[in-house]
Design goal:
The structure is a single chain. The protein is mainly β and 130 residues long. 0% of the residues lie in helices and 49% in strands. The strands form two sheets. Strands 2, 4, 5, 6, 9, 10 and 11 form a seven-stranded mixed sheet that branches. Strands 1-3-8-7 form a four-stranded antiparallel sheet, with no helix packed on it. A hairpin with a 4-residue loop joins strand 7 and strand 8.
């Protein structure tokens, strides 16, 4: 079983920044996090879980339009982590943020679909006050 763990959430004011981190442990069939495609999703109260950003196995990134230019997803394979740097936060960014892992064959828009992913973390709360 693979365990995915998110960290870095918190309460901030509009315009502030946060850096979320995702790591994985457990039986990953010999793979490290660097051998998975990784996505970040978020779910606001009363809403569906929505795609935020993803990074494919070869490093190609994609974002939902509402966060382009403000959020950056990146890998640090040496540290076995994937980060989501969130700048210029807005109250509408308030949500629980989830990290998820997908097989490395997936890339591009297939990573925008939550059903592509095999493993999910428990989420980390991000609250942005106005």
């Amino acid at each position: 079983q693979v365990q995915v763990v998110e960290s870095g959430g918190g309460l901030v004011q509009a315009g502030d920044s946060l850096r979320l981190s995702c790591t994985a442990s457990g039986r990953t069939s010999g793979r490290t996090l660097g051998n998975y495609a990784v996505g970040w999703f978020r779910q606001a109260p009363g809403k569906e879980r929505d795609f935020v950003a993803a990074i494919g196995w070869i490093g190609r990134t994609s974002y939902v339009d509402s966060v382009k230019g403000r959020f950056t997803i990146s890998r640090d394979n040496a540290k076995n982590t994937v980060a989501l740097q969130m700048n210029s936060l807005k109250p509408e960014d308030t949500a629980i943020y989830y990290c998820a892992l997908a097989p490395p064959i997936y890339d591009g828009e297939t990573l925008h679909d939550s059903t592509t992913y095999d493993y999910w973390g428990q989420g980390t709360q991000v609250t942005v006050s106005s």
